[in-house]
Amino acid sequence: MEAGSFLRSPISVTHNQPLRRRIESGFPRFVGASIAANSDGRYRGPKPRRDWVADWVSKNDDFVRSLPIYVGGASLLAVLFNRTVSGVAPVADASSSQSRADLLTLGLAVTNILSGLVWLSIRPKSISMISPEGIECQRINPQLPTPVVSELLWIWESISDVTCCRSLVVVYDSSCILQIGFAAKSSDSDGEAVSVDTSTLKQGSLYQGVMKSGAQNYLANLSLYPGRSELPFLPSNTQAVILQPLGDRGIAIIGGDTIRGFTTSDQAWISLIGEKLDATLANYLENFPFAVVDKV
Amino acid sequence: MSNACVSFRPLIQLKISNQFGARKVIKKSLQISARLGNNSRSSPENQQVNLSVLRFTFGIPGLDESYLPRWIGYGFGSLLILNHFAGANLATYATPAQLRTEALGLSLAAFSITLPYLGKFLKGATSMDQTTIPEGSEQIFVMSPNVSNAQKEDLAWATYILLRNTNAIAVLISIQGQLCVRGYWNTPESVSKTNILDWFERQIEIIGLSDVEGKLYFPQISDSGLWEMLPKGTRSILVQPVLQAPNPSGNAMQLKNEGFVLLASSMRYAYSDKDRAWIGALAKKFRGKSTCNTDLQGL
């Protein structure tokens, strides 16, 4: 997919695989049972067993969801059939032990059917990801000290591997210190990625809202928000955006390719990572004069 | 424009998106609520079955209704057996029809009992278990002394974030022999505060954790426990090795192990796929800094 663009960038982000790793249902239940034994065998603890049931259930999700309904329905019919075949009148009273046993079995069958219905109703809607339209870029302010750069690159690598994030922009102290991933293609003839205009961004309502509240803002379906126009540097079909304030001096803008693609867990991790990034940046960049970001 | 999803103990937590950019809120209500099909925005080809199902709940906090089939299975199953023997006491033998019904009933009861277990692995299922703190243990937080300041900050932050964001109650990070231990651990009384790090190092040496090659995840540990240093009541463990950053020109099979991250939790199946992915990403932060510098030569 993006193999060609990755080769363009001078800073390798240690991605060797061409496909993106995602958390899909096919992810093995755990990793580790199939590892080869240590060559010197120094790990002396137990090896975990493979969880067959968990694997099978996650692979056959749809089938398992409707299984209780079929089982309950079949048992219901079987009970009635049994009654008619054995010549007992189909009367729902508890007078004989046969009737009592039948009633109990019917109760169990109904429980199964209802349980299957509940499982079906809570099936999460699977939303497909939409490939962002734009070009890949990797712009880092060259004046940043090395620890900051490695921290930023680690953040990009983590977020893009684990979540549906495809673009990341970090603005600190009125200048854009990082723009990485997919960006909108500019309409100029050079066709380079649109750069971040921090002054317009800072005047926009999205930025000011986030700075005022000091809390993360998750726009789960970006097409619904009028503030979309304030983020022209993101690809036009970015589906979800997280705006994470970095203290009161900066903001991190994370663009994803799936509607509601960031889970609560992702949001919590991103907000804690944002705090760490703010601490790192404040530590290293106290009075740092920022030049306009150059393309790397 | 929100997805109508209000329910007390949903087996998944559906988000309500607020149009004006306010913080996302997950609403919970104490009533039985009907969930309406919300397919207004879905395209025709991925229409779900539109079921209006009453989400059944007793409204008692802490009671997990997803275990209801199991209780019903036990209850009705025992009633069936009672019925069989009560009937036999009256000196009437059970007819074949009754035996058939009872066999069917008992197998249904067994199936119902396993339903919550199967339901745990479905997409979108959230576990209602809570982590419990082992009694009689204290929280500890120790770090090896010869760690650089930057590394100290990173370790402190990483252990804090792991304890806060996952179901772990105990964290141990070991990088190139330097340890950082935080949380509730089962240290014996005889070990003084100054020797605690040595004790942990010896335990790690005995188990050989520094040489783990792949991720290890034990989601169900029995009551007898696994390793001595783990807190009592540990039910799941995750060991995430920290591998050296792969050299672009080098052989990927020769990645050395620089350390590991060990997480222990008091609930079973504590770490979902997503949690494990995040923990793996966090572990990459501690890869050797020297390899990171070579990547920046393009600057």
Give a verbal description of the structure:
Chain B: One of its GO terms (biological process) is cytochrome b6f complex assembly. The complex is a heterodimer of chains A (296) and B (299). Chain A is α+β, with helices and mostly antiparallel strands. Chain A has two domains: 52-121; 135-284, GAF domain (Beta-Lactamase). Chain A has helices at residues 3-8, 52-59, 61-85, 97-121, 146-162, 198-203, 205-213, 264-284; strands spanning 135-140, 165-172, 175-183, 217-219, 240-246, 250-256. Chain A has a six-stranded antiparallel beta sheet with strand order 1-3-2-6-5-4, with helices on both faces. In chain A, a hairpin with a 2-residue loop joins strand 2 and strand 3. Chain A is elongated. The relative contact order of chain A is 0.12. Chain B has 299 residues and is an alpha+beta fold. The two termini of chain B are 46 Å apart. Residues 1-52 and 290-299 of chain B have low confidence and may be disordered. The interface between A and B is large, with 106 and 100 residues.
Task: Explain the layout of strands and helices.
The complex is a heterodimer of chains A (296) and B (299).
Chain A: H1 3-8, H2 52-59, H3 61-85, H4 97-121, E1 135-140, H5 146-162, E2 165-172, E3 175-183, H6 198-203, H7 205-213, E4 217-219, E5 240-246, E6 250-256, H8 264-284
Antiparallel strand pairs in A: 1-3, 2-3, 2-6, 4-5, 5-6
Helix pairs in contact in A: 3-4, 5-8
Chain B: E1 33-35, E2 53-55, H1 68-89, H2 96-119, E3 139-143, H3 149-165, E4 170-175, E5 178-184, H4 196-207, E6 216-218, E7 236-243, E8 257-265, H5 273-284, H6 289-295
Antiparallel strand pairs in B: 1-2, 3-5, 4-5, 4-8, 6-7, 7-8
Protein name (chain B): Protein COFACTOR ASSEMBLY OF COMPLEX C SUBUNIT B CCB2, chloroplastic
GO biological process, one term (chain B): cytochrome b6f complex assembly
Pfam families (chain B): CCB2_CCB4
